[in-house]
Specification:
The protein is mainly alpha-helical. Among the domains are: 65 residues, Orthogonal Bundle (434 Repressor (Amino-terminal Domain)), CATH 1.10.260; 31 residues, no CATH class. It contains seven helices and no strands. Helix 2 packs across helix 3. The longest helix has 17 residues.
Length: 140
């Protein structure tokens, strides 16, 4: 059984004579596009990370199609963010992050593919640069 994210129907405005105290519209597509752009990714790059297509990503962002819950998790993983950032963008869950520089992010992806000895050298270099610039390094 698949669970789907359901969007509230978009309204063009209240009918004449109707009083609205406030409406909440779920904006998953907007949150997805915002998070993707923050990370400097194109729709094609996000689709590639998810092993999907640009068309699917576009449909989610334009709220043409509702993603299954499993896909929301895959999207969050591909963007390296908690699922809550996509589901509850207004709350932001008290979590603010600095987005990685796109060039730096790409280099980290390359570094992950290096042999262990080379990765160790990269770590030493980053530690040395951090120390030289007065930035504390926590290893994990």
């Amino acid at each position: 059984m698949e669970l789907y994210i359901l969007y509230m129907q978009k309204r063009r405005g209240p009918k004449k004579g109707t009083k609205f105290q406030g409406t909440h519209r779920y904006e998953f597509g907007k949150a997805l596009a915002t998070e993707r752009i923050k990370r400097g990714l194109t729709q094609a790059e996000l689709a590639e990370r998810m092993e999907s297509t640009v068309r699917v990503i576009s449909h989610f962002e334009r709220e043409v199609k509702n993603p299954p819950a499993e896909t929301v998790k895959r999207l969050a993983d591909a963007l390296n963010i908690p699922v809550q950032r996509l589901l509850f963008p207004a709350k932001n869950n008290g979590y603010e992050e600095q987005s990685l520089d796109r060039g730096l992010s790409k280099r980290f992806e390359v570094a992950q593919k290096l042999p262990p000895s080379a990765r160790q050298e990269v770590k030493k270099f980053i530690d040395a640069m951090a120390k030289a610039n007065g930035v504390a390094v926590t290893t994990g």
